[in-house]
Amino acid sequence: MILKKHVCLLTAALAIQIGSLQAQQNPVKLDLNAFEGNKGSWSEVGKVWADPTVPNELQSEAGSGVLANLPAKKKPGADIISKEKFGDVDLSLEFMVAPGSNSGVYLQGNYEIQILDSWASTTTKPGDNGGIYQRWDDSKPEGQKGYQGYAPRQNASKAPGVWQKLEVSFQAAKFDASGTKTENARFLSVRLNGVTIHENLEVFGPTRGAMSGKDVAEGPLRIQGDHGAVAFRNIEIIPFDAKAPTIANVSYETFQGSFNSLEDLVGKTSTAKGTAASLSEVPASVSDVNLTKYSADLNVAEAGEYQLTLQVPGGLSGLAVGNETITGLSNRGVRVRKQLNAGDNPIQIVASKNRNWSVDRFYLSISGPGLRETALLVSEAGAYQDTDPIYVNAEETPVLRSFRDIPDYKRLSHVVSVASKAKVNYAYDMESGTLIQVWRGEFLNATPMWNSRGNGVSVPRGALVNLGKPAANAVGSDFSASEGFRTKGYQLKNGSEDMVFSYLLADKAVQDEIKVLESGKGLSRTVSGIGNGYYKVADGSEIQKVNKGYYLLPETGVYLQYDEAAYGAPVTQTIDGAAGIFLPAKGNIVYNLLF
What we know:
Layout: H1 7-18, E1 28-30, E2 35-36, E3 42-49, E4 59-69, E5 80-86, E6 89-97, E7 102-107, E8 111-116, E9 135-136, E10 146-147, E11 164-171, E12 174-175, E13 181-183, E14 185-192, E15 195-203, E16 219-223, E17 230-239, E18 246-256, E19 272-276, E20 290-300, E21 304-311, E22 316-321, E23 334-340, E24 343-353, E25 363-368, E26 371-377, E27 391-392, E28 399-404, E29 412-418, E30 424-429, E31 434-440, E32 444-445, H2 447-450, E33 459-460, E34 463-466, E35 474-475, E36 486-492, E37 499-505, E38 508-516, E39 522-539, E40 544-547, E41 550-553, E42 558-561, H3 564-567, E43 571-575, E44 578-594
Antiparallel strand pairs: 1-17, 2-5, 3-4, 4-17, 5-16, 6-11, 6-17, 7-8, 7-16, 9-10, 11-14, 12-13, 14-15, 18-19, 18-20, 20-24, 21-23, 21-25, 22-24, 25-26, 27-32, 28-29, 29-30, 30-31, 31-34, 32-33, 35-39, 36-37, 37-38, 38-39, 39-44, 40-41, 41-42, 42-44, 43-44
C-alpha cells in the first residue's frame, strides 16, 4: 500500500464528490452498565437541563438514556471506566456541561479530550473545550511542567445546559512483536458540534492524569467525573481491529489515446500489457492520455459487506467486484458495496486518463467490518490537490451578501452574513426579514462562492445553529400571516457592529435591530413597528422554562431571554405545517438569543 503526503487532501475531495467512504459499521453502544468505578454520583436519567445563571448544577428527571454525573457531599464525583478495552476507534457521543463545569474524555484511559464550559471564549487553549490536554512533567520548572497540549482550531462550544456533540477518529499507538512502540497514537480527526477542531494530530505520550504512564495497544474509555456536573448520551464506539486487505496477482493492459467509453476500445490494440505482484508495481503510462484495464485479487481477512471507492482524478473510472463486469465509466468516481468472502475476491478496474491534465493512475480505497476507510493505492504521478479554501477575513469584511444553502429548503439568494469581534455571527434573509442562522467561531468559507466560476454560496465556519426557514415572522393575533413584505435595505448603526434591517410589512415600516451582547453570549434583537400579534423567533415545537425570563429551545439548542412580564409567555404554533416558537408582540418585541 502506497501512502503519499497528499492522501488527506485527496480523500477529502473524494468525500465531497461521492459521499461517505465508510461501509456500514456496527457500533458498540455504551450505557452506565458498560462502566465501572461509579461511587454513587453517576446515574441513568431520562432528561437533564441547566439554568445558565446557576454554576455547576444540572437538574434531572427520572428515565433512561442519559448518564448524569451529579456530585453531592455524600456522593463524590468519580471517573468511570469502560469494562471493555479498545485500540483504533471512532467515538461519537453527546455531552452537556453545567455552567462553569469541567470534565474530560480519555481515549484508552490515557489521552484526554477536554470537556469544559468554554462559552463565549474568543481564544482557545489546550485546556478549553475540545482541546487535547497537556502532558505533564513535575521535574520541570514552574510554568513549564505542561507541554505538548493542543488547543482546538476555534471555539466551537455551545452554551452550558445545551447538548453538544463530539466525534473522534483515533488511531492507537502501534507496537512490533517484541512490544517496542513503532508509531505514536494519533487523533485522525476531532469534530465538536460539526466543526473539525483537530486533524491528523500526533500525540507523543499520555496526557496529564492518564491511567498509564506509557502508551498501550488497547485501553478503556474513561470519562472524568470528579470535576463537576456533566451528562452524556448516545455513546457509541466503532472498533477498527481488522487486518488490512491486500491486492495481488495483478494483470494490466494499457491503450494509448483518449477514451470516454468502453465502446471506444473496440478494434483497438493495447500498447502495453503484463502482470505485477501489486498495483503499485504496474509501470507508469506510456502516453499523455491512455486507458488502463486491471484485474487482480483482493484479499480480506473477514467475510462481510465491504465498500470500495475508486476515483481517477480528472478522468473516468470503472469498477467491478466478484463475477460482475464493468458496463460503463463515470467521471464522478465509483462506489461499490459488496459482500466479500474471506480470502481472495476478484476485482476489475478501469482508469481512463482522457485529458492531458488528468492525473495518472488512480485512488482506490476500502472499508468494511472492523476496517476504517483504507487506501489500497494512492495516485503517484501528478499531484491531485484539493482547492485551497477561501476564508473571509471578518476584520476586513464583517458584512457579506451571498447565496446560502439551508437544510430542506431552496437556495437563498439574498442573505446577509454579519461577523463580530466576539466571534458571534449571524445570517439574515433579506427576502423575508428572517434571522435564519447564528454561529459561534470563525466567520465564512467563501470557496464555493469565489472558486473557479463559483455558485455564489458562502458557508459558516463555526458551530452552526439553524433557527428556521424564511417566513414573514410577524403574524396577527389569530396567527394569520402578514402580507406585502418588501425589503428596504440595511445599515450599520453609528459605525458599530449593530445592524439595522428595514422593510415594509403590510404597509408598515419595520426596523429590525440586531447587536451582539457585551457578554459575547449571544445576540440582542429589537423589532419595532410590527403591530400587535405574535412574532416568530425560531422553528420548533418545544419550550422549556429554566428560570424567570429564561427559556431553552431544545430543538435548536439556544436560550431565549426576554421580559416575559411585559410581553407574556412564549407559545408554539404550527402554520402551514411548520411548527414555530412565537412571542406575543405589542407593536414591538425585544429579546436575546443566547447560544
